[in-house]
Design goal:
The structure is a single chain. This protein has a seven-stranded mixed β-sheet with strand order 1-7-6-5-4-2-3, sandwiched between helices. A three-stranded antiparallel β-sheet has the order 8-9-10, with helices on one face. It is built from eleven helices and ten strands. The protein is globular. By secondary structure, the chain is an alpha/beta fold. Strand 4, helix 6 and strand 5 form a beta-alpha-beta unit. The longest helix has 32 residues. The structure holds pyridoxal-5'-phosphate (PLP). The site of pyridoxal-5'-phosphate (PLP) has 14 residues, from helix 3 and helix 4.
Length: 392
Amino acid sequence: MDKVHPGNGPRTDGVDSPYKVGAAQISSSAGFQVMIPVLPRANEIASFINEIDQTHIYSNNGPLNQRFCHEFASLIEERLTRPATPSVTTVANGTVAIDLALRASGLRERAHVMMPSYTFIATAHAVLNAGYTPYFVDVDEETLTLTPAIAEQALQDGLKPAAIVVVSPFGGPVDIPSWEIFESTTGVPVVFDMAAAVTNIRYVGRQPICISLHATKMLGLGEGGAVISSDSALVNRIQMMTSFGFEGGRRESVLQGGNFRVSEYAAAVGLASIRDLSRKIAVLEDRAAFYNDQLSGTDVTTQCGFGSDWIAMSMNLILPSNRVERILAQFDYRGIQWRRWWSYGCHTHSVFRSVPRSELPITERVAFRTIGVPFHEFVTNEDIKEICSIVA
Ligand SMILES: *Cc1c(COP(=O)(O)O)cnc(C)c1O
């Protein structure tokens, strides 16, 4: 095996923060950085900021936040394949979106919330913060997501969860209608963590859909999140929870909440981000197509439908088990950043090690070989060719 060359950048296996990657570091090797988020430039935000100067409204669901929610709801609605009328509220971030969606769902008892171990760690923190104990279950090998069949098995094994959090795998679509049927037959409420899937929502029902508007997601505010549902009363309750449970303009607190709002400055970035979204999608679709082309005929795959049916900010290769270590050593040697974005599953993190769970054979089989590779606007065809020549 090749020795890791010390001059070829840090091993990035979940250790370094992707959040710090930014333009200041863009250099000739930018193409080999695993992610470079692009948010609107100062001049694209300026006209919205000028409005703040006029209104002197800086937060508390001001005019820019309201406009953002309205435009955001329209862009969600445009992409649906089954008609629905989405209601939207912004929240401080994607983790809080899940936390509040669980709390607002009026769950029966304080108990377990079933969720996949294979997700970003935020999902598990949100469940704990909402007052529940996660119960980790496995995912489907093909789609990397929790399925109704896996959830039904856990119920048959005796689990009585207060709710289930279904996670979109790295932004991939989720079969929401099948979870509507699941909820109506089992009575177990379902909340969707579709944090990275803002452009891949095909249907909106009553079950809340939680979105992250973090800089590393497709529609970035820097920090931010949203909850979407066809149930406007539910969305309204969550919005009240973001602001101390105050009802409408009254200063009476009628729900347990806190301060989980976005500022007007963040909403300004969001409005500019919406205007840049179709350009961003087109560039990333083009990069994904080149990757898929280079990978065709090899034994390395990507998530199903990635680049053809849907797109997100991270691209994951599913490497053949027996070559994972060798390929990663080669990446390190050539200074190509990579990440196990979701590590080996939540159950392997020390905070969650004692959390109850079912057997997780698929998670154990897929997590270690699902590897994020450089995917962003600055990765060139030459970069992609080099990356793919290593994995092929
Ligand atoms: C990004 C992400 C979150 C957390 O969103 P934040 O806005 O960073 O709090 C939660 N779940 C998944 C699957 C994510 O990808």
